[in-house]
Amino acid sequence: MQSSKRTRKDSAEKELYVEVCLFDQIPVNFALVEAAVRQYIEHTIIECLGLFDHSKTTNEVIKKNVKEIRIDADEDVVPLPISVKLDGVNHEPAEQIDENDDVASLNILPLPSLSLHGLWESLLFEFSVKNYLMSYASTALTFTLMQVDSQIVTWNRVVLLHGPPGTGKTSLCKALAHRLSIRFCNQFREFQLIEINAHSLFSKWFSESGKLVMKVFRNIRELTEDRQRFVCVLIDEVESLTAARTRAVSGSEPSDALRAVNAMLTELDRLKSIPNVMILTTSNITEAIDQAFLDRADIVQYIGPPGVKARHEILSSCVSELLKRGIIYVNGGAQGDYLSKMASDTEKDLLTKVAICSEGLSGRAIRRLPFIASTRQCGKSVELVTYLDMLNLAVVEMKDRLTSTACW
Ligand SMILES: Nc1ncnc2c1ncn2[C@@H]1O[C@H](COP(=O)(O)OP(=O)(O)O)[C@@H](O)[C@H]1O
Ligand SMILES: [Mg+2]
User: What is the CATH architecture assignment of 95-302?
Assistant: First the structure.
């Protein structure tokens, strides 16, 4: 179970966000846990953001209930009142709405969801894209809560992330929705993530696409009728929309596809007036995004392959995990923070070399590399320096293969 509360660290004059992950026990007295954590945090020197070590606490409530405390501070985030309620993470699996089989299924995931726990932290980018998105989303939710008239101050509620495949766009959208549900747990009774794959709207139902789109959006509107529920809609790979429209204009697509595209654009416009919805979209096509769609997005953000610092962090997190699990070992034994604190210059240099060498690879490919390197030893335990050499070889091979197939 996971919860969220916010507190203020006076010395830094900065708003802190505190996420509390609880052991999976029911019932939990949230108020008691919150009070204990709040008091503990306020009387402890916070040295760095991220995972907060609470192992030394003597407080029985924390010891009994709290699994993990994570502290964050997004300076750009619009301040809200300090929250006073803790909420539970939803363990429910995604629900599907499938109307008489004539509608593309919607995946509905109650948020916060255990399946998305840790995703936000695992995504590493060179620039502050995560802060930027969080600021946008927090502002949108705050405007909603303050009932700002969207006819006067307009915003579209649509975000578009575009860039090559495997760069974390879909994951970022899901992680954003998950984080919002934690951060705003006091302001809405429930949060839901609705996933729609744009391909399923356009390809499956040849002559019925327009109607299908309308049905999907009707379902979404029904879900937003309860204003205490905040709905994040993820429309993945919207390039199919763009492609269908381009083909229609060039005459090579039946008019049905064009009707579907137009229906979707109209439906997006209708959602604009609904206060408790946000549309997160992704596209794998970097060039030529449909202008009509671009016009509807408040944020159009390019997400590219990770830079060298992000690549280094991704690789470090993978190697640390393998050290923790004993797949890699170092003489004398390794602690969790071995790479950052105790690694030899040779080990550090080797990792840096791999990070530099993996330029151009997507985050997805880089996260797979450590596994591919391990397959050389059939997953057997191997010494760190030897492993880093294997990792380097794996990068070179992957880049060779991808260059020859020219599809990365
Ligand atoms: N910048 C990144 N930092 C860390 N992991 C990443 C990054 N980009 C991609 N990944 C990894 O690749 C996986 C797949 O990414 P995904 O969100 O499906 O990419 P996209 O939607 O851009 O194709 C992610 O879950 C994550 O494990
Ligand atoms: Mg994707």
Answer: 3-Layer(aba) Sandwich (3.40)
